[in-house]
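Archive record:
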Amino acid sequence: MDVQNDFCPGGALAVKNGDKVVPRLNKTIAAFAKLGLPIFFTRDWHPPNHISFRDQGGIWPPHCIQGTIGAGFHQNLAIPRGATIISKGDKPDTEAYSGFQGTDLESRLKKAGVKEIFLGGLATDYCVRESCLDALRAGFAVNVLRDCVKAVKVKPGDGAKALIQIRGAGAKLTTSQAAIKRLDRTRRQSHHSAR
């Protein structure tokens, strides 16, 4: 989620080493795409006068403004054909860290028959955490790919605290490699049972 230029090195609200999640995310995305599983991308899509910006009394510098390069996904992020893109924070007066807040993500996931989510992206201590907590509240099983997330760390330790909170709420912490192995096992089992 939110693997956008403004959250990567050189961006307006850069997460240290934020771009390092891309290769592992790409491998995980490829594994899901190979099985024809639904893939969703979220993005901040802020108007220029968004409430979260300092000029409007918020805490952040202007970032991910609709239609700008900063709002674009990282150039190396693999977005498969047929993936769903969810825009959030697109109204001036509404903050939205979670991909579920003010969007139709929940209904789209349920319509696609999704019961379990594998989540990675930026940033651990804000959008990842809030999306994870909302997904749990909506009744989804949630797996956070801890090697595919990075924290912005407004305060030292914020990333670690977010992961503790996520796990305490009922999500599982796993890795991209473990998720891919699990998908591969599922694929082999379904292949055998289809014979």
The chain has a mean pLDDT of 95. The chain has one domain: 5-194. Strands lie at 40-44, 84-88, 116-122, 141-150, 172-174.
